[in-house]
Amino acid sequence: MGSKEQSLHTPKRRDAGPFHSPTDDEKFMRLALREARRAMAAGEVPVGAVVARDGKVLAKAHNAPIRRSDPAAHAEILALRSAARKADNYRLNGCCLYVTIEPCAMCAGALVTARVRELIFGASDRKAGAAGSALTVLNHPKLNHRVTVRSGVLQEECCAILRQFFRERRHEKHAGRSAR
Ligand SMILES: [Zn+2]
Predict the structure, then answer these.
(1) Residue 45: which of 35, 53, 55, 54 has the closest Cα?
(2) What is the pLDDT of residue 23?
(3) Helix (H) or strand (E) holding 67
(4) What is the Cα–Cα distance from 76 to 74, expressed in whole angstroms?
(5) CA 23–ligand 1 middle distance (angstroms)
(6) How far, in Å, is the centroid of ligand 1 from the Cα of 142?
(7) Closest CA to 92 of 77, 114, 119, 118
(8) Is 76 a catalytic residue?
(9) What residue ranges of the chain have pLDDT lower than 50?
(10) Beta strands of the chain (E only): which ranges?
């Protein structure tokens, strides 16, 4: 039966039409990229995230597991927490999350729990991406909540910052300096 397979990739949508214009997409992804650069400056893997609702920024954050000694301190989790505090509601209905790289399984699970409406990411992550690249947590047929997923917004920039980070880290290791 091919119908189940298909539902993985073409989730039912409760609302019609795009939630943000392409201009909004670029604007919010540029903010997420700025957050990613902050992570890089702090020696963290450069990932940045923005939560938007009704065309406005609700929260933004960058990756900080090393600095916070917190394995859950991914950009998406920190942005969702901050947005939920501001909204005074752990359900983020009608919110869109922009992130520079495809979320991992933990972050994808948090997006479902928070009932986020739409995920927009820049670069795919073949090794750990849970929006269909390595795993399919979002829009899994067993889960009730559907998240609209779009990818490839400012993809080049999102890939470039990660490439730059890992290239520099390799150089540091090569030069005998600690990467930490
Ligand atoms: Zn994550």
Answers:
(1) 35
(2) 83
(3) helix 65-68
(4) 6
(5) 26
(6) 21
(7) 114
(8) yes
(9) 1-17, 178-180
(10) 48-53, 56-62, 96-101, 118-123, 148-151
